[in-house]
């Protein structure tokens, strides 16, 4: 069983694109839309702001509901931080961990222009700007997939509609929280696990630095460096990369 966390501010629906590249008879896969990030879920947070503890609590309840005791966990981008926290708290139940372009430590983020943009959005409460950026990026990816006929029109329309339904406040607060929080303490709880670290040599420097930090910190690891942009994994995952990730997690 593989439990997968999507990247912010996206939907777990995009993992269907990953499963297109693998024999489904060999794996069981579970994911969900984190409230506020994408889709049609309500804002569950008491203060209206993102809370990583509440997301991980939801994940635990899903595992209990489906009677899942032993599983591997996968997290992409900001979803990697959630995967680390779940693996830390459910350590005895987690077999393997795959971290894809994961955000882990704020020291690599503070000087990047994206950090400044995130701060301005939250200070001015211009949360709608994040939704505009997410929709524009998704439209760009979808156009390429549509032109190449790599994905069905129906799937792409549904996915774009879900992105358009992002809760701008929750998603903005989530990214702001990730940009200033240190999740490296979770690494101490998972050092005995088999871990796969994967990132792209062509993605933003802030993600490459995070991956290098993970490689230096973790001992029991396997590492893959691929090509392509950071966002390719959302709807344009490479078959050879997907196969390596899933093979690692289930074998």
What does this structure look like?
This protein is of the alpha/beta class and 251 residues long. It has helices at 15-19, 52-65, 78-89, 113-124, 128-148, 153-164, 168-180, 205-217, 232-235, 239-250; strands spanning 2-5, 29-31, 71-76, 94-100, 194-200, 221-226.
Overall radius of gyration: 17 Å
Main sheet properties: 6 strands, parallel
Shape: globular
Please, how many helices? Answer: 10
Average pLDDT for all residues: 87
Order of helices and strands: EHEHEHEHHHHEHEHH
Helical residues, percent = 40-55%
Low-confidence runs? none
Class computed from helices, strands and strand pairing: alpha/beta
- Spatially, the strands of the biggest sheet line up as 2-1-3-4-5-6
Provide the β-strand percentage band.
5-15%
Keywords:
251 residues; alpha/beta; 6-stranded parallel beta sheet; 10 helices; 6 strands; 13% strand; globular
Question: Topology of this structure?
Answer:
Layout: E1 2-5, H1 15-19, E2 29-31, H2 52-65, E3 71-76, H3 78-89, E4 94-100, H4 113-124, H5 128-148, H6 153-164, H7 168-180, E5 194-200, H8 205-217, E6 221-226, H9 232-235, H10 239-250
Parallel strand pairs: 1-2, 1-3, 3-4, 4-5, 5-6
At a glance:
This protein is 47% helix and 13% strand. By secondary structure, the chain is α/β, with parallel strands linked by helices.
